Amino acid sequence: MDPRGEATTPRTVFIVDDEADHALIARHVLQGMAPDIDVRVLSALEGLAAELASAPRDSAVLLDRLIGGVESYPTLQEVVAARPDVRVTLVSAWLTPEEARRAREAGASVATEKPGSLEGWRALFRSVLGGA
């Protein structure tokens, strides 16, 4: 956030997904849209909260709801509690309204289904980047 409390465009985006194809597509689309942004891909919940706690200021995170078959809500809560400046977008291949509500209650800025097209990924990243 800037001094006025407005969201700033993140300089670092973490893509957290254990599905290599989704992570690769997301990284490729994001780097094409914003080549100056530092994109980091992580694929495991173990150590994730600590990694994100040391993230650069005003980073953004694209967090898969299930990592290795384990829900990421506890990690989401831990990250947001430690770093309220980090914006987390929770994504899932399948997201019910109940799961979206749980994500927002856990601290996600947004909860959405993973896009099924490149244009869908671009739209998602425009949102993550604050319209940039």
Secondary-structure map with pairings?
Layout: E1 12-16, H1 20-33, E2 38-42, H2 48-53, E3 60-64, E4 66-67, E5 70-71, H3 73-82, E6 87-92, H4 97-106, E7 110-113, H5 118-128
Parallel strand pairs: 1-2, 1-3, 3-6, 6-7
Antiparallel strand pairs: 4-5
- Give the radius of gyration: 13 Å
| Main pleated-sheet profile | 5 strands, parallel
Q: Could you name the ranges where pLDDT drops below 50 across 5 or more consecutive residues?
A: 1-5
Taken from the alpha-carbon principal axes, the silhouette is: globular
State the helicity in percent bands. Answer: 25-40%
Q: Which structural class do you get from the secondary structure elements?
A: alpha/beta
Mean pLDDT: 91
Number of strands: 7
- Strand content is 15-25%
Number of helices: 5
Note the gap between the termini.
Answer: 15 Å
Strand order of the largest sheet: 2-1-3-6-7
Q: What's the helix-strand series?
A: EHEHEEEHEHEH
Give an overview of the whole structure.
This protein is α/β, with parallel strands linked by helices and 132 residues long. Helix content is 39%, strand content 22%. The protein contains five helices and seven strands; from the N terminus they run E-H-E-H-E-E-E-H-E-H-E-H. The strands form two sheets. Strands 2-1-3-6-7 form a five-stranded parallel beta sheet, with helices on both faces. A two-stranded antiparallel sheet has the order 4-5. Helix 1 crosses helix 5. The longest helix is centred in the first third of the chain and has 14 residues. The relative contact order is 0.19. The N terminus is likely disordered.
